[in-house]
Amino acid sequence: MRRILTFFLLICLLWTATLQAGAARIVYSFAGGTGKPRVALTFDDGPHPRYTPQILDILKEYGVSATFFVVGSNAENYPELLQRITAEGHELGNHTYNHFHVAKLSRKELIADIGACHQTLERLTGSGVQFFRPPEGVCTESVKEYCEEHGLTIVMWSVDTRDWAHTSVEDICQNVKENTKDGSIILMHDFIGKNSPTPAALRRIIPMLQELGFELVSVSQLLGEAE
């Protein structure tokens, strides 16, 4: 009886973390019950000529995989960074081509913007993507419908580092330490204006989480879709 109750509670936990919009899957976090607690690092808006290489260097130093939600126009400008991301074992997600506010787009404009990013990533890397993150986390019905139709998982987050607001490194690290749990998806950015705190914060966050017993993985690894 106790085992049945434990299994039921686990199913309820996963259900609250993974929401369904029709057949469109929306993931905020995912505790897969693999034994060792896992979390996913994600980076939005890049690639950036200065910050993306710094972030990749840090990830490589610690042997950590991550997921980069790429803006198509930035990928066009820095294709060599896009290729470095995939060559070093990280995965890509679609973050639209122009990073417009999706709620202000017509359905036709939205489809064109998401589709243009997908085509750009496929052309530059030779493969498609399975994940989509809407700019600013604005998940409209049109976004859900598009992702349902194209088999894309919508990946949100459960820990917002607020690096985009130029939050101090100390506050970013404290936020991550206090709010990260098994299955957390952590939101960071590799394209921020001048004086981004992200690389310095990342250099402290990775060993901190590892010392707390977390394994840092890509989104597909977190969801159990890759190892």
The rounded Rg comes to: 17 Å
Largest sheet: 6 strands, parallel
Percent range of helical residues: 40-55%
Poorly predicted runs: 4-21
How much strand?
A: 15-25%
Q: Using the alpha-carbon principal axes, give the shape.
A: globular
Number of helical regions: 9
How many angstroms does the end-to-end distance come to?
33 Å
Mean pLDDT figure: 90
Instruction: Write down how many β-strands occur, each being a DSSP E stretch of 2 or more residues.
Output: 10
Helix-and-strand structural type:
alpha/beta
Layout of secondary structure:
Blueprint: H1 2-17, E1 18-21, E2 24-27, E3 38-44, H2 51-62, E4 67-70, H3 72-77, H4 79-87, E5 91-94, H5 107-125, E6 131-132, H6 141-150, E7 153-155, E8 159-160, H7 169-179, E9 185-189, H8 198-211, E10 215-217, H9 219-222
Helix pairs in contact: 2-8, 7-8
Describe this structure in words.
With 227 residues, the protein is an alpha/beta fold. The chain has helices spanning 2-17, 51-62, 72-77, 79-87, 107-125, 141-150, 169-179, 198-211, 219-222; strands at 18-21, 24-27, 38-44, 67-70, 91-94, 131-132, 153-155, 159-160, 185-189, 215-217. The protein starts with a helix and ends in a 5-residue tail after the last helix.
Give a brief outline of the structure.
The chain is of the alpha/beta class.
Summarize this structure as a short list of keywords or feature phrases.
44% helix, globular, 6-stranded parallel sheet, 4-stranded mixed sheet, 9 helices, 227 residues, alpha/beta, 17% strand
